[in-house]
Amino acid sequence: MKKTKTVLPSTYLKATSVTAAVLTALYGVPAHADADADIGISEVTVTATRRVTTAQDIPLSITAVSGATLEKEGIQDIAGLAHSMAGVNFTDKGPFGGINGSTLIIRGLNSEATAGQLALASPVIPPVATYVDDTPLFVNLRLQDLDHVEILRGPQGTLYGSGSLGGTIRFVQNAPDPSAFDAKVEAGLSKTDHTHALNEDITGVLNLPITDTFAIRLNAGWTDDAGFINQPNLYQLDASGVPISSQPLTPANPVGVDPAIAPAKWSKNGVNTYEYRNVRLAALWKPNDDFKAQLSYYYQRAAAGGFPYVATQSAAYNQWISPNTQLPGTNLIPQLYNSPVPGGAGRLSSATNSLEGTNDSVNLVALEADYDLGFATLTSSSSWARHDNATDTDLTALYTNFYFYQNFYGQNPRSFIQGHDRYDDKVWSQEFRLASKSGGTFDWVAGLFYKDEKTFIQEHEYYPGYDAFYANCPQTVPSDALGVNGSTCGLGEYIDSGATSVAGIPLVRDQAYIGDFETRFKDLAAFGELTWHVTSAWSVTGGTRAFKQTVNQAQQTGLLFDGPGFAANEALSDEFRRALWKVNTAYQLDKTDLVYATWSQGFRRGGVNALPPTEPVGYTDQNGVFHDHYVLPAALNHLAPDKVDNYEVGAKGTVAGRLSYSVAVYDMEWHNVQEGVQLTPLVLPAALNIGDAQSRGVEMEFNASITRHLGAQLSYTYDQTKLKSISPLFSYPNTAVPAPALGSPMPGTPKNSVALGVEYGHIHVADGELEFAANANYRSVIIPALSATVPHVPGYTMVDSRVTFTRTHWLASLYVNNITNNLGISSYTDPAIYGNRLQAVVSQPRTVGITVGYSFKER
Asked: Cα–Cα distance between 631 and 212 in angstroms, integer?
């Protein structure tokens, strides 16, 4: 069962006049007049500091949510978790959101576009570390059968290592229990507006004691969500995947070169269906009070039939190429201007030309062992994980808005580019940790950590039918391959020259681009924290993490159509030796209230960019000077680590056991900020140190048990971020988008965010209990990318409600999410890259559902 404690301090019945005044203001009655003597604030037991304690007792900014709360509120994923609190920002892309990138942001430490990368995965690791128990793993985890979740705000570099810049989130799963049998099952049905099917959800848990010292635990989940995005602009394809002409072709025009001949189209509704399947099997052996070991296996598969992206303007359907993405003076003919907008296009419609999808799978094996040595506890955490993803995307808009597109690839009226991407991440990690027993003058934690990670990112892009188009296309305009004189037919394919490879990369017909990254990363670290209890009330903590990291990358990139000069096969490596530090001091004002001050550091590993040294691509620089080729600055080959210094003061505690509070003020200085970007005129995926940034803010959380029936939670975050300096390398033609203005806010973080929850429960009805709950989440305007051209995302509010009835073993819940059916735009793609086809990432429309559950134990 969930580990909670009820805080009922001895001062409860002896409240001071100040406390009495506060309670009178909050509850409308003096403290001593409350008849509900059993009311208290339940706190979640956590292990964030590698010791068992409560969130209110830790001198840092931490939010802990019990598994019982997640279950009661119907929170099944990170999107729902972030929606329930302020200061945790998450761009919900469904199963597409489990790949490296800026999906999850804490304290404004993010520089990447929140709508997603052009490639499947960014070479920059996420700025928030996520752990499944003690295993570092970035995945969009399904939140089922959890003991609790810990959200640690601010850098946690000493205990949690590289990648914990903005914070760390730990998902602590329920352990098998040898003491008692338990089983439960829940099933749910719901209907989302703008869908044509029901959402279905089933979860189950079985805890089976085998002996007094050995138990196994099994949990599984099965979820299908109906799609709410329509695609009325799909191209009809032949058996080879080539778009079909909307008019009959003739012997004189066998491939329909005439620009007036548009592709035949069709439509499909509800494309972004989501499927989730997950199972976990764990075995616990505890032969005595001193030793225990747990072996577990977790599997999750997520699939989606399309992105939750919608077109933002009618030009997305009837103007292929935006004039704003084309260089002045080029001899290019606009394609398909004033083409009819397809019927059925609405606010939840995408303009993309093909069906998209993803299949994402995670396998995790972990072995954790604890041994009580008397003076300390020795812990060993071993894990192996594999995260594999395959995604198909429509890249037509991306390509057609390249300024060099028409003279490279011609003016086919049925241009069609497909992306087939792969992400394969294999991680093995081992940690040995020794934690002293609490209660002495000194508390300490020390450990060793090793990680070996192999990551493969594959981006293969194809132009089906280009070869046939070129073979039947008359060359009406000479092509110079420099982006000035556009050709009706393009440059043709280099494979037709008789070559079979370029820079060692095999040529495949109609393959436009290849970008393969093979990265090997190793991390060896020693870490520790020491707390000196100077007095019974005052403590001082110091911590460090010293490490050696190596990264090796082999990269092959290029426009395979175009032969030598447009492709490269490079390999680079780098090594980093650093130490991170932390100093914290805390003072216990009384038994339930404390203040603290912290300076801590976070670190994110560096990397390399194995890019072509030169490119024979013409471009006009910012001064209007034309260059007939591009030379890669040597500084772009290496990505330096970025580091953050966090200065924080805070206070937390409880008032008479009925109001808990936590307040923190922070100033974070971010140096050598990393961003996943598209580099060089050929728009190749890579990473860049873009400059320095800052994040300053205030975090507040309040949890009140007002009466036996009424409770409330309020959280508020003010976060002001800004780009303090910009690297001179962050400019065209090195980067594909123009740099933002100095002082611009960082992407994905609202200046103001608020979450409010109210529950009215313990209402006795029909031998059971009824509870009503409502939750609201507000966030102010954000920018979705560091770009001078991307539009701002307006602020919005989401409101959910829930009615729950419990009776002995049974539970029934009726809920409405997004009551006002708010569109809830969370991000935009950049028109500098996508032209008229910029899209918005939207949230799930209003959803009405019911959940019914049965538990072997009484609720």
From this structure: 70
Cβ(264)–Cβ(246) below 8 Å: yes
Closest listed residue to residue 47, CA positions, set 162, 146, 170: 170
Percent of the chain whose pLDDT exceeds 90: 60
Question: Which CA distances in Å does 526 have to 381, 448, 449, 579, 580?
Answer: 15, 5, 6, 9, 11
CA R_g for the chain: 29
Reported as type and span, the H/E element at residue 221 is strand 214-225
Read off the tokens for 191: 């209907």
- What does the block give as tokens for 215? 């138990």
Residue 24: its H or E element: helix 17-27
Instruction: Match 């140096």 to its residue by tokens.
Output: 671
Whether 419 contacts 514, CB under 8 Å: no
User: Within 10 Å of residue 220's Cβ, how many Cβ atoms?
Assistant: 18
Share of the chain above pLDDT 70, in %: 89
Minimal CA–CA distance to 549: which of 527, 570, 587, 578? 578
Name residue 734's amino acid: N
Angle at 838 between CA 783 and CA 328, to 5 degrees: 100
Distances (CA, A) of 333 to 321, 323, 340, 368, 403: 10, 10, 19, 64, 12
User: CA 739, CA 724: separation in Å to the nearest integer?
Assistant: 13
With helix as H, strand as E and coil as C, how does 243-290 read? ECECCCCECCECCCCCCCCCECEEEECCCCCEEEEEEEEEEEECCCCC
User: What number of CA atoms fall less than 13 Å from residue 498's CA on the CB side?
Assistant: 0
Instruction: Specify whether the backbone of 154 is left (phi greater than 0), alpha (psi in -120 to 50) or beta.
Output: left
Bridge partner residues of 303 (DSSP): 275, 359
Q: How confident is the model at residue 32 (pLDDT cuts 50, 70, 90)?
A: very low
Give, as one character, the DSSP assignment of residue 73.
T
pLDDT, mean over the chain: 87
Map residue 475 onto helix, strand or coil: coil
Residue whose entry in the numeric block shows the structure tokens 């075995």: 283
Q: Quick check: helix, strand or coil at residue 696?
A: strand
Residue-wise pLDDT for 98-149, tens only, equals 775 567 899 999 998 898 766 666 778 888 989 999 888 887 889 999 999 9
Question: Rounded to the nearest 10 degrees, how much is the dihedral formed by the CA atoms of 784, 787, 788, 794?
Answer: 0
- 200, 587 contact by CB (below 8 A): no
| Alpha-carbon gap, residue 268 to 234, rounded angstroms | 8
Please give the single-letter amino acid code of residue 78.
I
Of the candidates 419, 255, 434, 409, the residue with the CA atom closest to the CA atom of residue 332? 409
Tokens of 198: 């029901």
Structure pTM?
A: 0.89
Q: Is the previous residue joined to 126 through a cis bond, with omega within 30 degrees of 0?
A: no
Closest listed residue to residue 152, CA positions, set 166, 137, 167: 167
What lies within 8 Å, CB to CB, of 545 at 6+ separation is: 157, 158, 159, 161, 525, 526, 527, 528, 579, 580
Q: What is the 3-state secondary structure (H, E, C) of 163-201?
A: CCCCEEEEEEECCCCCCCCEEEEEEEEEEECCCCCCEEE
Joined together, the tokens standing for residue 389 give 């993803």
Contact yes or no for 190/223 (Cβ under 8 A):
no
> What's the token pair of residue 393?
């995307």
Phi, psi for 318 (deg, rounded to 5)? -115, 5
C-beta of residue 15 within 8 angstroms of C-beta of residue 55: no
Chain segment 730-740, per-residue pLDDT in tens: 888 888 777 88
* Single-letter amino acid, residue 235: Y
Residue found by looking up tokens 């929140």 in the block: 114
Residue 590: pLDDT band (50, 70, 90) is very high
Query: What gap in Å lies between CA 207 and CA 215, rounded to an integer?
Result: 7
At 68 the three-state DSSP class reads helix
CB 450 within 8 A of CB 427: no
pLDDT at 27 over 70: no
